[in-house]
Amino acid sequence: MEELEQGLLMQPWAWLQLAENSLLAKAYITKQGYALLISDLQQVWYEQVDTSVINQRAKELNKRLSASPEAFLCHLDNLLRPLLKDNAPHSEATFSCDHEAEALILRVRSELSGLPFYWNFHCILARPSLVSQHLIRPLMGMSLALQCQVKELATLLRMKDLEIQDYQESGATLSRDRLKTEPFEENSFLEQFMVEKLPEVCSLSDGRPFVLNLQSLYMAVTKQEFQMGQKHQNIGDPQTSSSAFLKGIESQLPNQPEQPVSSAPDFSAPQKEPTALYRDLSCQSSRGRSQGGSSVNLAWSQLLRMDLEHSFQASP
């Protein structure tokens, strides 16, 4: 069952609106079983089952249907895929959820081979280590990554201000007054952000902005966490096994065709291909890391100069 746990970690979160219930959910389904994680931002519920549980529950809920556990798993995958990908249930399926004591029951009704099909996901409260693995640690990693990104952007803005100053001292004038800006002051910017933007940002409401805007970063952080965990294990060749597993998972993530149920369902929105300029800068950035960062600064300096030359014209 380790494959299910690892596969679930690599999945993005989806936002669901089921009647009055707003939920975050992620799932991973293979021929051996499934793992499902659901949260209402107050609690987190979890279910992980193998084929024996699938077989027993199918007999209890669908007495008129006779099929292998793999067939039921395939059907569940087909039902969950559109729900978690686009928040649009399968055209022939209805979903609802109920709270029972410390459990959450996600109920599904659809058809299979022309007969009614019923399924109940029995999710219990997730253990603390699971909450840490899927939420606390990734969110901490994302926060640090975003903070680092802000610092890098602030550095670039200061570089741009210096370049603007150099243009001005050389006699260049701004061709369009509306493009004029004041020199960037990081402390003033942060103070203004805290007053004007922070209240809006902190209104998490139902978690939908987190799902819509931050899943690429979430998956990048969980992938890094997984790789670091594998490197610290002393079983076999961790790098080889980690690489093979991630390759299988990533084959199901954005920009990939749908695959059989034996692999992870594709729940995330397609990503845009990087532009030629972005690819060029990325290559220079990679080289710059091994050369003390000089190539990175040069690449950004070239980009900023191209931008500024469109805004300034030399005085006669």
From TrEMBL:
> PANTHER family in the record, alphabetically?
NON-HOMOLOGOUS END-JOINING FACTOR 1 (PTHR32235)
Q: What is this protein called?
A: Non-homologous end-joining factor 1
Show where the XLF-like coiled-coil region domain sits. Answer: 128-175
Q: According to the UniProt record, where is the region Disordered? A: 253-294
Q: According to its UniProt record, where is this protein located? A: Nucleus
Q: Which CDD domains does this UniProt record tie to the protein?
A: HD_XLF_N
Q: Which GO terms describe its cellular component?
A: DNA ligase IV complex; DNA-dependent protein kinase-DNA ligase 4 complex; fibrillar center; nucleoplasm; site of double-strand break
Q: Which Pfam families match?
A: XLF, XLF_CC
- XLF-like N-terminal domain location, by residue? 12-124
For this UniProt record, the keywords arranged alphabetically read as follows: DNA damage, DNA repair, DNA-binding, Nucleus
Record's subunit section: Homodimer; mainly exists as a homodimer when not associated with XRCC4. Interacts with XRCC4; the interaction is direct and is mediated via a head-to-head interaction between N-terminal head regions. Component of the core long-range non-homologous end joining (NHEJ) complex (also named DNA-PK complex) composed of PRKDC, LIG4, XRCC4, XRCC6/Ku70, XRCC5/Ku86 and NHEJ1/XLF. Additional component of the NHEJ complex includes PAXX.
Q: Where is the composition biased (Polar residues)?
A: 253-262
Q: Name one GO molecular function term.
A: DNA polymerase binding
- This protein's source sits in the domain of life called Eukaryota
> Low complexity composition bias: which ranges?
284-294
One of the GO biological process terms: immunoglobulin V(D)J recombination
